[in-house]
Amino acid sequence: MGKGGQNYGKKESIGTESSNRDPFLAWSKDVRECEERFKVNRERGLSSDQVENQRKIYGWNELEKHEGASIFKLILEQFNDTLVRILLAAAVISFVLAWYDGEEGGEMEITAFVEPLVIFLILIVNAIVGIWQESNAEKALEALKEIQSEHATVIRDGKKITNLPSKELVPGDIVELRVGDKVPADMRVLSLVSSTVRVEQGSLTGESEAVSKTVKVVPENSDIQGKKCMVFAGTTMVSGHCFCLVTHTGMNSEIGKVHSHIHEASQIEEDTPLKKKLNEFGETLTVIIGLICALVWLINVKYFLSWEYVDGWPKNFKFSFEKCTYYFEIAVALAVAAIPEGLPAVITTCLALGTRKMAQKNALVRKLPSVETLGCTTVICSDKTGTLTTNQMAVAKLVAIGSRAGTLRSFDVDGTTFNPFDGKIHGWPGAQMDANLQMVAKIAAVCNDAGVELSGNQYVVNGLPTEAALKVLVEKMGLPEGLDSGTSLAHGDVLRCSQIWNKVEHRIATLEFDRDRKSMGVIVNSDSGKKSLLVKGAVENILERSSFIQLGDGNIVELDQNSKDLILECLQEISTSALRCLGFSYKEDLPEFATYNGDEDHPAHQLLLDPSNYSKIESQLIFVGLVGLRDPPRKEVRQAIEDCKAAGIRVMVITGDNKNTAEAICREIGVFGPFEDISSRSLTGKEFMEILDQKNHLRQSGGLLVSRAEPRHKQDIVRLLKDDGEVVAMTGDGVNDAPALKLADIGIAMGIAGTEVAKEASDMVLADDNFSTIVAAVGEGRSIYNNMKAFIRYMISSNIGEVASIFLTAALGIPEGMIPVQLLWVNLVTDGPPATALGFNPPDKDIMRKPPRRSDDSLITPWILFRYLVIGLYVGIATVGIFIIWYTHDSFLGIDLSGDGHSLVTYSQLANWGQCSSWEGFSVSPFTAGDQVFNFDANPCEYFQSGKIKASTLSLSVLVAIEMFNSLNALSEDGSLLTMPPWVNPWLLLAMSVSFGLHFLILYVPFLAQVFNIVPLSLNEWLLVLAVAFPVILIDEMLKFVGRCTSGLQFSGASRTSKQKSE
């Protein structure tokens, strides 16, 4: 509400400007001033002309529709990624080269276009997924509109209009509200028709109970919870009947401000920590690829550009465009080799698998990247009501009068829900309960308008939660001996005991609750024909009107000062435990109602029509006992808070509830210690905003509490924490939480109690509304990140190997070993299954006993990079080496390679194959590969071009085999395969089988072999492949051993340092 809103749109701009020039704080003005301000009479309402004028100023009472980004802009945004841009450039260049080669050769082979088409396909799929995720962001704003009321009852021109569309309301309209109505705009309460009006506004303010409304003014600087004379758009009338004056509509209402905050928050969404790291990696990769491509060209420039020196100056330049494009193709192959094309697909698959695991733990992930972000969460900002607590009122203590005056009996009551079978009463006498306890049960059951039903597996409340908790207490109390046997109700009824008490005591009149006397009474006619009055309400007020107390045996004695002080002392003790107390009393001397049976013509009925008579009727009462109620914490939350502390995650409670209640709950669940001084840790929202150094306050170690918090406070806290480098998870269920959910790194909505607005604004929804589910999800997020790190390293190390292979080929001057389409197949298809399977690595046992990783932690440390450079260099040597071995050796390591009949050449000939046409008497014999025979009688030099097909196949097979063995190395960062054998992840063994199977498919299916320009291999050739590939495991085992030794030395050094410090 504030100062009349901000400029949120064109149509509201005039009204907003006027309200900003002259702010009208309706809650701090009396009813007459409000009517004068809007020039309206509550009996007649606005005239038609006034309505038109107001609409020109303030516009329609509806939320503005913000235009989302255009589809063209969304498509462009998907290419705002370094890796994607490199890939796009490589695809365009290879497409142009394929077209050029086809033009030159006179025919276009489809195989030449496989590589660019596959890359384009990857980019298109990636863009579609990205656009789909972006479009989901706007749904939160659409869901907000559903909360708005559709119709209102309005007085205009002296007539009552019952079904006026809410969007036609203007400031100054007089609106009638009844029970069940949804409030259509922000309004000032003008008059109460019923004695009380209660509004459920928890979704907007975070309060755990319905709020009583009044016509009395409140201070100008009141927070939203303190504006008792205002009702807000989107909230619901729980009880009562009143007339109100519309003060703010559309985007100027509180719900309009929430709408604007959601929109603002959605505009500043940041990349996840992983995305940032991958972007950084992509930028580094761009520089590396650029340098390597330039180096390859410089090494091979002599092949396509030559010159002679004349008089010391280079002249007579000769340039071969064909050779130039050939080496340009090698540069493109380098780009394809260096980029892990399969990485986006594997990350998406791993995150999707993670969401399935989380769903099994009741955490439903709406946005895939949030799975990874959860793993580095450093602060959890949690709402209290419904997340840390059950959001179900429950009686925790029952106090009855003892066997003699001046004594009390106290009973502890278990249970945290509306389930009557959840918990028991300690020390309860059961069916042997005395007259005093029977009277407590009777009043709790009969002076009560609530109900509890079993709907599926949930216990659903009709009416006020406080009254429902009393009925649940009656069920736990049971029935006294004799009363149970004489009734005929089914034993399956949820509130069986309450129904029996209501059958015994027939209610004939109700004295409604009002805020002055703070009590509710009912007049009942018992089966014996005797009338009595049963009363419940605030303990102090009932004690003031009580003259007697009922002892345990049913005897009535006078309420003396000693007994009164004892009851008030008990009340004080219970209240300090943040329990809400209700007292019970009754009266049997009702001369005016002796013959009353509910008849409207009876003289006593006239007394009931005037609420001012209720205090007099409820006098000379007999006090019988009291109960303490609360919204209890969930059983598993305390352990979850302990887990957070062990995992280095700070818990901050931000609630709209009052300070005392919130502090008591925080002590109980372990956010604060039982005797800890929390004066600097527990503030109200208003107090927090007045602190000069807010960031320093938020940096305090341990738990923090902000109570009476408004939506803007939650946003400011999240923003400050994020600015300070924290990764923030924010929970919420109400409309008021939506902007903060949108702004947080991880927005977590409640699945049961949460509004659709909160769910749509969130990244994750808790199916069970339970805080401990968040902690379990964080553990799962950490595990998923570790696994993702494993396969990212695996894929990157594989790509380093491919780059090393191409670079060595170019540096040595030998024919190109692998073509781009083969590298693309390895990166996308062969590497994909093992990388995905690494996502199933079992989590570390101590995963939730480590501090959260910093969001800027390096994905690849210098030591890991060195390790993979060594591995990559071996991959390059192995792939190029086997290529050279086939051309220059007829056997290797005792394996005979002469079976196919191929001719041997010297290494010098292989390195200078470009000069083949100048060699005299050079000839080669035909060789076989599968069913094919390769003959080079026409042009022996083709032996180094089309004849390299067998050597190229061997290189590709070695690359595939090494990468399969390398995936075993990735099972653990530093753990040996002896301590973490392959079968700890059976999915990885299956994935390796699939990848080898796919490789066999392209080798032995003729059409596919033609597409990938490869041939089948013999058994001996496969033995050579495995012999060359296997050492990669031995090399990495040695590097891991060195890593373990150095990390052990670092650890022992660190522990010695800390020991010296402590000494």
Question: How would you characterize the overall build of this protein?
Answer:
Helices cover 46% and strands 16% of the residues. By secondary structure, it is an alpha+beta fold. The chain is elongated. This is Calcium-transporting ATPase 1, endoplasmic reticulum-type. It is a multi-pass membrane protein. It comes from Ziziphus jujuba. InterPro entries: ATPase_P-typ_cation-transptr_C, ATPase_P-typ_cation-transptr_N, ATPase_P-typ_cyto_dom_N, ATPase_P-typ_P_site, ATPase_P-typ_TM_dom_sf, ATPase_P-typ_transduc_dom_A_sf, ATPase_P-type_domA, HAD-like_sf.
Short summary:
By secondary structure, this protein is an alpha+beta fold. Helices cover 46% and strands 16% of the residues.
Name the descriptors.
1063 residues, alpha+beta, 8-stranded mixed β-sheet, 34 strands, disordered N terminus, disordered C terminus, translocase, membrane, HAD-like_sf
Contiguous runs where pLDDT drops below 50 for at least 5 residues: 1-21, 1050-1063
Q: Give helix % range.
A: 40-55%
Amino-to-carboxy terminus distance? 58 Å
The residue-averaged pLDDT reads 80
The largest pleated sheet is described as: 9 strands, mixed
Structural class computed from helices and strand pairing: alpha+beta
Give the helix tally. 38
How many DSSP E strands? 34
Estimated share of beta-strand residues: 15-25%
What is the radius of gyration? 39 Å
Shape: elongated
